Amino acid sequence: MAAVVLAGLAISSVGSRRRCTFPAAPRLPQCDKRIILVDMDGTIADFDQRALELLQARTQQSLKQEPSELCHFPLTKQFQEHKETLESIYVEENFFNSFKPIEGAIEALKEMQAHPQLEVFLCTSPIVQSKFCSQEKAEWVRKAFGEDGDSWVRRLIITSDKSC
Questions:
Q1: Which listed residue (39, 48, 148, 161) is catalytic?
Q2: Is 0.85 topped by the overall pTM?
Q3: Catalytic annotation on 39?
C-alpha cells in the first residue's frame, strides 16, 4: 500500500483502487453581515465621461453623449473608428486617477458601510495592458473617499475575473 499526502489531501492506493480523503474544511468565523461588492468604473468613478473628454480632445470631434446613449461595452465598441486612440488613452499615466466621482456614489457607499448588517467592498478589473491602472485605481479611491480613503483602499479588490 502506497500513500501520498499533497497539500493536505491524502491519496492511498490499495491494489488497483485509489482512495482519497479530504481534510475537514477550516471553520470560517460566523459573519452576520451581508457582503456587498461594488464595481468602480461607471458605478462610482466616471470612466466613460473621462475617456470621451480625452478622445474628443485628441480627435477634435464633438463626442458629447449622454450616458443613456452609450449602449456598448466596452467603449471601444461604441466608437470603433477610434478604437486605437481609446486603447492608447487607457494605458496612459494619470488616466485612472483623473475620473470624477459619480454624483452621490461615495456618500451612498459610506452610508451602506455604516449599516450594521452590511460589509461593503469595491471590486474592479484592471486593464492589464496599463502599468498604471491598479495603482491609480487605489490612489483614486484614497482621494475620492477623503479622510476615510485608507480604510476604503483596504476594501479594494482588484481582479481580472469578477464572475465568481
A1: 39
A2: no
A3: yes
Rounded distance, CA 75 to CA 31, Å? 38
Q: Domain 2-158: which topology?
A: Rossmann fold (3.40.50)
Is-catalytic flag, 161? no
| Alpha-carbon span 103 to 46, nearest angstrom | 9
- Retrieve residue 119's grid coordinates: 460589509
Predicted pLDDT of residue 8 = 43
pLDDT in tens, 73-104: 456 556 667 788 888 899 999 999 999 999 99
Estimate to the nearest angstrom the gap between the alpha carbon of 61 and the chain centroid.
31
Helix (H, G, I), strand (E, B) or coil at 122: strand
Taking the CA atoms of residue 89, residue 65, residue 79 and residue 156 in that order, the dihedral angle to the nearest 10 degrees is 50
The domains of the chain are located at 2-158
Q: Which of 32, 41, 48, 150 is catalytic?
A: 41
Strand pairing class (9-14; 17-21): antiparallel
The residue-averaged pLDDT of 115-143 equals: 94
Percent of the chain with pLDDT over 90: 47
